[in-house]
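Researcher: I'd like a structural prediction for the single chain below. Treat it as a standalone chain; there are no partners to consider.
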Amino acid sequence: MNITPASSAVNLINTAQHKSADAAQVIARLPVQNDEVGSLEFRSSDIIKPVLSLKEAELETSAAVKLLEADKETIGSLLDIKG
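Model: Treating it as a single chain, here is the predicted structure.
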């Protein structure tokens, strides 16, 4: 199996996408009253974990983009050396 920075970045982006989708579903299912203040069943601790998952997914995506940029620079440098 050939592991490249680009394939690692794509895997990281896919993982982040699934993580953010799961967190968004959890947040969407939290109980809220019509006045949007929240219900008695709502506990603020219920939202902390999915919000942190969203932030984690954001950071993973940012890391994947940096990985792709570094890979692009490396390929460009190799082409400059060869050419």
